[in-house]
Specification:
This protein has 186 residues and is of the alpha/beta class. It has one domain: Spore Coat Polysaccharide Biosynthesis Protein SpsA, Chain A (Alpha-Beta Complex). The chain has a 7-stranded mixed β-sheet, sandwiched between helices. β1, α1 and β2 form a beta-alpha-beta unit. The longest helix has 19 residues. The mean pLDDT is 91.
Length: 186
């Protein structure tokens, strides 16, 4: 089992938070959250998918391998990463976004033979997803991706598990999401 974490440039991350945070604060936030997600993947082999040299250097610095994508795009990047990991012998891949500030353990997500969907706390987005390799699973990240990922598992006749997890369900996309730090006392 392996973990894939797609990460875009920290300098361009979290643009929707601009009304609440400066460029520097958004960069630090994105860096800190992504570093925490890599740590939550341990001890599993972890790859960061990126198309930014700074992200690649950061990933290697935190102990992750790098899967370089020459063109941006979340769905093609994740699909290529899962395909690659399947060709080198991994039978399951966990895909986790880098903006999960409460993530502490990702390994349990992959302990199911079929597809595991961990939606965001609203039940709409897909924060963490585990899939078997070699199935042709079509990723459909974007608004309301969780229902599409569930439908894809059904289309492929793969067992499906949906887990609502408080820690992995909290991502940071909008200013309202920053309240997670109030709950942490930070």
């Amino acid at each position: 089992m392996a973990v894939v974490i797609p990460v875009k440039s920290f300098d361009q991350a979290k643009g929707r938070l601009a009304p609440s945070l400066s460029n520097g604060d958004r960069r630090r936030l994105a860096h800190g959250m992504a570093t925490g997600v890599v740590a939550a993947a341990q001890p599993l082999p972890t790859w960061v998918v990126c198309h930014d040299h700074g992200i690649a250097r950061w990933a290697m610095g935190v102990g992750a391998s790098v899967l370089w994508r020459s063109t941006p795009g979340l769905n093609p990047a994740v699909s290529a990463a899962v395909d690659f990991l399947g060709t080198i012998g991994f039978g399951r891949v966990i895909i986790a976004h880098g903006d999960l500030p409460l993530a502490t353990d990702l390994g349990w997500v992959g302990d199911f033979d079929g597809v595991t969907v961990v939606p965001d706390r609203r039940g709409l987005g897909t924060n963490v997803l585990a899939v078997p390799t070699g199935t042709g699973f079509q990723f459909s990240y974007g608004a309301c991706s969780a229902p599409r990922h569930r439908a894809e598992a059904t289309r492929l006749d793969l067992a499906l598990r949906v887990v609502e997890d408080e820690a992995l369900g909290w991502d940071v996309d909008t200013p309202d999401d920053l309240t997670v730090f109030d709950h942490q006392g930070t």
